[in-house]
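User: Fold this, then the next.

Assistant: Folding the first:
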Amino acid sequence: MISQLDFVEIVGVCAPLDDKYITKSAHRFNVPVIAAGTLNGDTMPDNVDIGITAHSFDYIGRKTRYKPKIGWIGYHPSLLPRHRGRSAIEWAVRMKDPITGGTVFWLNSGIDRGDVAYQDWIFIDPTLYAMEPKKAAKRLWEYELQAMGLRLLKQALTDIHAGIIIKKPQVKEYSTFEPNADVKDVYKPDLLMLEQFASTSS
C-alpha cells in the first residue's frame, strides 16, 4: 500500500536476511537490504526524508533517528500511551481490554513514548479472551491491526507530503508498560491485579 504512493521512493529496508516477506520483496524490486540488528547512522542510506518502523523490536538509536530530514514515524499496535512494550496486543487480551487499536507516533529516545500522530481503534471480540493469549494476539494482528497500521501510515505519509505535521504529546498519566510476553516467567498475576484496582478506583 505504501509503495503504491506515487511520491514515495523506498531507498532501503531493514529486516532479517532470511525474511520471506520484506527481504524477498526488496530483492524483487532491487531495494537494498540492511540486516536486522545492524541499522545505524553509518549503515543507513544517505538523503533519506523519513524513516518508518512498524511493530518493530529494534531500538532506533539517536544518530539513526536524526539522520532522516523529517524524522522517524512508527506504528505501534495499541492506543498509546496504553500498553507500551513489544507484547502490546497480547497484554490487551490478557487484561481483557474491551477496546484496542493502533498508533502512528514520532520516535524519540523512549520506548513507544514519542508524540502521537494518528490513532484508530477497534472492539476486541470477547471470544478472544478464552483463547491462548498469543494466538488471540496473532489473530488480532492479522485480521485487524496490521491493515490498520498500513492505513494509518499511508495517511501519515500523505499528510506529511502535503506539509501537514501532527504531533500530540502522550498523556503520561494514562501510560502503561508491560514486559515481553515471550520471557519464560513473564506472567505475573500482580499486573492484572493492579489493572483491576485501577479500574475499580477510577
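Now the next one, as you asked:
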Amino acid sequence: MPSRIRWEDRECPLSTTVQHVGEWWTLLILHDAFDGYTRFDQFQQSLNISTSMLTARLKTLVADGLLERRLYQSNPARYEYVLTERGRSLRPVIVALAAWGNRLLAPQERSMVLVDTASGEEVEPVVVDGRTGKSLDDSETFVFTAGPAASAAMRARYAELRRQQVTAPEEGAQ
C-alpha cells in the first residue's frame, strides 16, 4: 500500500503514527485485542468484518510490529494474533480516544466505559505530564516544538509559530 504521508511530514510523529493505526478497522481490531481476542474467528465475529479486510488488516498489524502471529494449532495450521510490547504501548491511546468519544455523549448513551476492576467504578482517563502530573489539556501551557532530530524545515515551522504567538498578544494590546 502506498504511503499517504506527504514527503515533508515524514518526520512528524503524528503522521507516521496515523499511518500505522489511523485506519478504522485497525483501531477496532486493536481494541478487541486489548479485550483479549486473539483468533481470526473472534475478531471476525466481534467486528462483523469481511475475511479479506480482516486478513489485510492483521497482516499490516503484524508487519508494523503491533501484533505477533503465533501458531496455536498445527493440523490444520491455525494462528493467533497477540499484542506485542509495541502494540500494548498503544493502550493509553485507545483509552484516550474512547474517553474523548464518551465525553461527547450523555452518560446513559455510552455503550462502553472504562472501570476499575477492583471497585467496578467508572474511571475518567486523563493525559498528564509524567513529571509534574499536570493535565495536558491546556494547549497554551503545553505546546509542541522541534525536537533534537528535527530537520531545518521542522525547526523553521516551530520558530515561525512561536514568533506568531509572541507578536499576536502585542498586536492585540495596541
